[in-house]
Amino acid sequence: MGRVPDDVVNQLREGSPIEDVIGEYIPLRKAGSTFKALCPFHDEKTPSFNVNPRMGIFKCFGCGVGGDAIKFLMQHEGLNFREALQNLANRQGVDLSRYETEDGETSLPSVREKIHEVNLFAARYYWVSLRGGEGSRALSYIKRRDISADAVEAFRIGYAPARWDALCQAARQKGYSPQDMVEAGLAIQREDGSGFYDRFRDRVMFPILGADGAIVGFGGRSLPDSDARHATAKYINSPDTPAFRKGRVLYGFSQGRETIRSKKRAVVTEGYFDVIALWQSGIQNAVAPLGTALTAEHLRTLRAHAEELIFVFDSDQAGQAASERAGGMAGRILGLAGAPDQLVAGEVLRENYIDRRGLGAIRLKVMDLPRGQDVDDVLKAGGADSVRRLLGEAEGLLEHTVRKAIEGVAPGADQSEKLSAVQNLMPVLGASHQSVRDQYFSLLEDRLGIPYPALAESVRRMLAEEAREPTCRVEPAADLLGRSVDRPRLEVDAVRMLLVRPDLAGGAEVDPSIFADPAVREIVAAIIEAGGEDIHPAGLAERLTDPSARALVLDLAAGETPADDLEGEFSDCMARIQEKVRRRREEKLIKEIEDVSRSEGNDSPAVRRLLEEKNALLRERQKTSSAQ
């Protein structure tokens, strides 16, 4: 895409309120004229992430990342500038395709956009195939699974034919190259290099949607009577591509996001059919990871929308292991151990716990399925009410994990078996408050005979090890907002006001040279150069060459915004700055007069010239004082 004019970029920035854009990814809490949150770019317990709606800027005062909505999308979603801009354009129904490259050629889509386009074509192909002659077996299977027509449509379920290159041939006819198909993860090149074949064959197909609703990948389930050549595994997913990472996407999240937000609860299940079965029974806030364990990215996504997570685990050993992993990760990533009712009922506050109301505090619970049953079995036996009853009886994650671990140790087990069971509990116990931890240590000592001091020492070593591990997901800024720089307060105040009212820079008293701080000088000069236009802070930062000046702009723009009626306050601020300049000049003159007098005598021409300059400064100060 050719260069989009600055005025169009500014319109797109202003057309999508930054708090709405960021609020789709992380929970924001109103704090005066700004919003606060736990930073999504590094792990922290105290919110240092600020969003200023009026200025359209975010800034983390912990890791230094900041910018506008475009920068947030680039950083959080891994987009380039063009893709982030297109994201804002899509929200506003703006067509950016009319902008051409500098040589007049029509712009080409990015790799990610091309993958979205190819995936959309594939989804339509699979959709049509399900309703054709080749799809009759798949359609029968879907009906046997009691998946309704509404659910098939809502989740855009399709069928990949039982032919080696059905999709590749159809794509070629539509003008997509084999390389396009490989990049989208839909085709694989033969080992001998002689051609390409479809990755998905004779499978029920589940399009996987990203946060913006675009199809980013697919999951495929083999049919029970599939040829072994096609059914290499019961479930397969698209490989990771520039548009798709399994560790970041949750199946069903796009369809269930609004329900998750309204109910403030997400149900985490194990697979596609669980999500779909719950959805069609009226429980439309279920999601599932894509063939991977729940990741930190998954938890951060859910934290942004829900106050309660209920994990639906099987009652077998695998379910217990999943419970232990989820508890440990949630404690580390989300910092949830300190809130009452989050990991265990009645848990007291950690000393470093903060009030996270509105910041994504989450209650973690576990719903145990009856032995030998999955979600579908429970729904068929008792309907949606039976699932809702089990959800209502969900147990706190810590309580559940410890209870299951103790129950899993057989009577007469040797010490090594007991230690193995307890070792798996260390992550979730380490994530809890010490007073709660102590109670469980006493319980484990009583039930399993493992000494309390040994348990405490194991957790201490684990926490010490974790404390040495880096947690920042992005490189910290080289100059975190100039914190190490002692900037003149009045000059910083002047910049803060000019960011809100750049027209004030047109006054005669605003001269960049009077500012002592180099970063402030560059900022003021850039505002004056813009002619007093209402320039977006992110656009202003792009014009600056000094990294500390850019950081200062974002720092100030993300903080509290002064009121519009600033003329008097700004004029007073500038008068005080000018007075400081005069005093500095006067002090310098006095020193020069002393030095010249010693070297050239009191009556030298140089001394007389310096005295005249000093007197002029005094007259200027008197004139200013009388005017006030």
Structure write-up:
The protein contains 25 helices and 16 strands. The chain is of the alpha+beta class and 628 residues long. It starts with 5 loop residues before the first helix and ends with a helix. It has 5 domains: 6-92, Zinc finger, CHC2-typedomain (DNA Primase, Chain A), CATH 3.90.580.10; 111-237, DNA primase, catalytic core, N-terminal domain (DNA primase DNAg catalytic core, N-terminal domain, Alpha-Beta Complex), CATH 3.90.980.10; 259-467, 3-Layer(aba) Sandwich (Dna Topoisomerase Vi A Subunit, Chain: A, domain 2); 489-564, no CATH class; 575-627. Strands 1-2-3-4-5 form a 5-stranded antiparallel sheet, with helices on both faces. The protein has a 5-stranded mixed sheet with strand order 13-12-14-15-16. Strands 6-9-10-11 form a 4-stranded antiparallel sheet. It is 49% helix and 10% strand.
Reconstruct the topology from this structure.
Blueprint: H1 6-15, H2 18-23, E1 29-31, E2 34-37, E3 49-52, E4 57-60, E5 66-67, H3 69-77, H4 81-92, H5 111-130, H6 136-144, H7 149-154, E6 158-160, H8 166-173, H9 178-183, E7 187-189, E8 196-198, E9 203-209, E10 215-222, E11 235-237, H10 253-263, E12 265-268, H11 272-280, E13 286-287, H12 296-303, E14 308-313, H13 317-334, E15 363-368, H14 375-392, E16 395-396, H15 397-407, H16 415-423, H17 426-430, H18 434-448, H19 452-467, H20 489-500, H21 518-529, H22 537-543, H23 547-558, H24 567-600, H25 605-627
Parallel strand pairs: 12-13, 12-14, 14-15
Antiparallel strand pairs: 1-2, 2-3, 3-4, 4-5, 6-9, 7-8, 9-10, 10-11, 15-16
